[in-house]
Design brief:
Distance between the termini: 24 Å
Order of helices and strands: EHHEEHHHEHEHEHEHHHHEHEEEEHH
CATH class of the largest domain: Alpha Beta
Radius of gyration: 21 Å
Strand content: 15-25%
CATH superfamily of the largest domain: NAD(P)-binding Rossmann-like Domain
Number of domains: 2
Length: 368
């Protein structure tokens, strides 16, 4: 089986994904009977589509050999995507076309990623994304669009990199209802709080995260709590059926004055953490991100540096904890790869027919 990929966005994660595909080529063919070709790549400034003379598709460095503006200086990623869907209509009809959406988070509305996903699904492509914006702003609408198109829309990389969160609930917890969750889901702020406990300044700890490529040059999405709020909304929408956006999450970030609180909490045998949480109360879901002093024996209190964790509260299994001991580009790229394999495994089967045999969730939430 061969899947054709169109990449919208080509930053660090997408580039690592392409090299990971090359590294795993033999294993994908041997273990999953899967061959993957990258047939198109687009950013705001450059676009390239594989010619018919390149049946193997694009290589990782082909994109940077293309001139600025790609095939058309007036083109945008959305226009390129529409053209690519037309050019790849045979692969789309055969359920072999996958759009990989890795543009950056827009905390205002989740655009243009939402438009990219709608367009791809309408054009017959499956979609995989690591962008938390579409899940945080338009989960219900996009899930309906995927169902109408009879295509998959997967987003395991949106929260906690490649650590299984959404597919854990979707694939391994039948008849279990998630009642709520809490966790530490932003690596930059957890690193800063840990460093400030040890006497490092806020500015120095943040600069270290920027030097490692974890925090952006403009780190406001991290330190102001917006990244954690977007992840909280995404988790609440998928796991609790919330229908909220990051702007509906009560949000507080961290600043330099959190250092004093972190030191005092540590001296008292407690830990200061930026905790993301949500819970369903009847028909209402409440969600928040903020600094919380935790007792030392709390699992979240033991997280150091860039470590993350999520604790799911369920009706039948009580609490389930998922801990991420480290994070890297490879782990986020793996999330895209794992979603791709999920699509490949189910490709011969219509999504509608699979859903027809699935028992409905007792909570009434939509499955990702």
């Amino acid at each position: 089986m061969t899947l054709d990929l169109v990449l919208i966005g080509y930053g660090n994660v997408a580039r690592r994904f392409v090299t990971l595909l090359a590294e795993q080529r033999t294993a994908l063919a041997r273990d999953h009977d899967l061959t993957v070709r990258v047939v198109g790549i687009a950013t705001r400034h450059r676009q390239i589509y594989a010619s018919h003379s390149r049946p193997e598709g694009l290589h990782s460095d082909d994109f940077f050999k293309a001139p600025e503006g790609g095939h058309d200086v007036r083109s945008t990623p959305l226009a390129f995507l529409r053209n690519a869907l037309t050019t790849s209509r045979v692969a789309a009809r055969q359920r072999r076309l996958v759009v990989i959406e890795t543009t950056t988070l827009d905390i205002a509305r989740g655009e243009p990623a939402i438009r990219h996903i709608r367009t791809a699904l309408a054009g017959g492509a499956h979609v995989v994304t690591a962008n938390k914006g579409p899940v945080a702003f338009a989960y219900r609408a996009l899930a309906r669009a995927a169902e109408r198109a009879d295509r998959r829309w997967l987003f395991e990389g949106a929260v906690m990199d490649g650590v299984p969160v959404f597919n854990l609930v979707r694939d391994t917890l039948p008849a279990v209802n998630v009642l709520g969750f809490r966790g530490v889901v932003n690596s930059t702020t957890n690193f800063i709080l840990t460093a400030m406990e040890q006497g490092q300044s806020f500015a120095a700890a943040l600069a270290e995260m920027q030097a490692r490529g974890i925090a952006e040059a403009d780190p406001s999405l991290d330190v102001d709590g917006w990244d954690a709020a977007a992840k909280t909304a995404a988790l609440a929408n998928v796991l609790l059926g919330a229908g909220i956006t990051p702007h509906g999450v009560e949000r507080h970030g961290i600043a330099a004055d959190a250092g004093r609180r972190a030191v005092e909490a540590r001296a008292a045998g407690r830990r200061l953490k930026l905790v993301a949480s949500a819970r369903r109360n009847g028909r209402r879901v409440t969600a928040s991100v903020g600094l919380v002093e935790l007792p030392a024996d709390d699992l979240l209190a033991g997280l150091e540096g860039q470590q993350n964790a999520l604790i799911l509260e369920t009706d039948l299994l009580e609490e389930i904890a998922i801990v991420q001991r480290s994070g890297s580009l490879t782990q986020t790229a793996y999330a895209l790869l794992s979603d791709l394999i999920t699509i490949a495994r189910a490709r011969p089967q219509s999504l509608r027919s699979a859903r027809g045999r699935r028992s409905p969730s007792r909570s009434g939430r939509r499955r990702p």
